[in-house]
Amino acid sequence: MAVDHFGLRLASIARLLGSERRIDRLLSLILQSARELCGADAGSIYVVEGEDAARRLRFKITQNDSVAVDLREFVLPVDATSMVGRCALERGVVNVTDAYAPGAAASHDRTVDERLGYRTRSIIAVPMVSARDEVIGVVQLINKKRRPAAPLRTPAAFETNVVAFGTRDEERLLALAGQAGVSLENALLYDEIQRLFEGFVRASVQAIESRDPTTAGHSERVATMTRELGRVVTLVENGPLAEVRFDDQDLREIEYAGLLHDFGKVGVREHVLVKARKLYEKDRDLVLARFAYFKKSLETDALERKLRLVTGRGPSASTDLAAIDDELRHRLREIDAHAQFVLASNEPTVLAEGGFERLRDIAAIRWTDGDGVERPLLTPEEVETLSVRKGSLTVDERLQIESHVVHTESFLRRIPWSRQLREVPRIAGAHHEKLDGTGYPRKLRGAEIPVQSRMMTIADIFDALTASDRPYKRALPTERALDILAEEVRHGRCDTDLFHVFVEAKVWLTAP
């Protein structure tokens, strides 16, 4: 294989990296190409780790046409005690005619040969140098053969078919290693950037969940389930989903969208975001303090009435005094009952029939504050908040929560996504849309909603229903959650086919 053809094969690896991000595939191509170029029976590649005095060589990949080799990764120091170490240290070619000969350029560990029944004779090692002129790896070839297609399995074969690597081999291998070094550097840089970006995504998720600890793990569970649903959908061969296909890059895009689908919650006021009951704690405490003040005022009023009776009538007022005590006890019990009803109404449950009327009756009770101003026992705002039919949020608060989707898409569109990930903002921004147009924020319908978003909607609803860490509701069992999702499907809000795949594949079992 000519060296200039190697660049064309690197282009195919670039496409491979774009889909799988597998550096070992690039290393495999480099080694295979080097062996073909020089007619080598075997070879290995080592990658430099660390910097300066802490540098070391990690064994990454090996190939052998004559024997099966299964070696685990190990590390060697960058020094003259090994051939590859010397090559990396001196930045030059190490070419040994016979590794077993006395006085060989560097020591050769024969234990592997003995275990495999192999004989290492000729060796050549060349450094892979990056565009920044740093040694980032070493290519080592073993046993150049007169007849490249002939395996080495007998002592005679090693004697007759193995020859030394020549000057021409050194020149070719150096040329190839130069291209390989730049390609490996690019692949490593790509991998570093990928890890950096994934770290940013994970940090963003942590930032979301630190503002709303009650939903910790939700983003990752939704991302995992949505990605798994996408993987399973790709296997469907019949019906409306038969043509829906997601490759590795598509699934990674779906995963990122799932991880970041709630990022916009950083733009929602925290007290609204974590609101567990209808009244905020300070407002609930204010209501209870008002009830307590009202009770004290009733007691004070009763004492004043009793004092006037005793002053005016003396012992003959005993009957009326008892009546005042009975009336006070009745009023206090009544106020306590009202307070208990308010606390019950404050829970994020569906208010019982007649509850709204009773709240209005309580609000109609008047009390007088310390300045002599008459006030209602419950304010109109408190009655409205306590009258929320379902959940804990008022209409305004729910709109604030729903605005997180707008914030999410706005934030994600500021990121310069690669071509493979450019749909992340659109997917994440539509996960609360419903097929019948009743979702938000754009009230999209049917095909206007990306199929990835429709998958995420199912995963998001399922996790919200089954999560055990929400303070404002109990976790539902899986069957009940699936029943609720099925109801959404029957009403035309969620995708029927995707839901059936979700159920049949038991996608929820993949969630961490």
Description:
The protein is an alpha+beta fold and 512 residues long. It is built from 19 helices and nine strands. Helix 7 packs across helix 17. The longest helix has 45 residues, at 167-211. The radius of gyration is 37 Å and the shape is elongated. The two termini are 48 Å apart. The model is unreliable at 11-20 (pLDDT under 50).
Secondary-structure map:
Elements: H1 3-20, H2 23-38, E1 40-49, E2 56-64, E3 75-77, H3 83-90, E4 94-96, H4 111-116, E5 123-129, E6 135-145, H5 155-161, E7 162-163, H6 167-211, H7 218-234, H8 248-259, H9 270-273, H10 281-313, H11 318-345, H12 355-364, E8 366-368, E9 374-376, H13 380-386, H14 395-402, H15 404-412, H16 424-429, H17 451-466, H18 478-490, H19 496-504
Antiparallel strand pairs: 1-2, 1-6, 2-3, 4-5, 5-6, 6-7, 8-9
Helix pairs in contact: 1-2, 1-6, 2-6, 7-8, 7-17, 10-11, 17-18
Report the sheet-strand fraction: 5-15%
H/I helix tally:
19
Largest sheet: 7 strands, antiparallel
- What is the end-to-end distance? 48 Å
What structural class do you assign from the helix and strand content?
A: alpha+beta
Number of domains: 3
Q: What characteristic shape results from the CA principal axes?
A: elongated
Q: How would you name the CATH homologous superfamily of the largest domain?
A: GAF domain
CATH topology of the largest domain: Beta-Lactamase
Number of strands: 9
Question: Radius of gyration, Cα only, in angstroms?
Answer: 37 Å
Chain-averaged pLDDT: 87
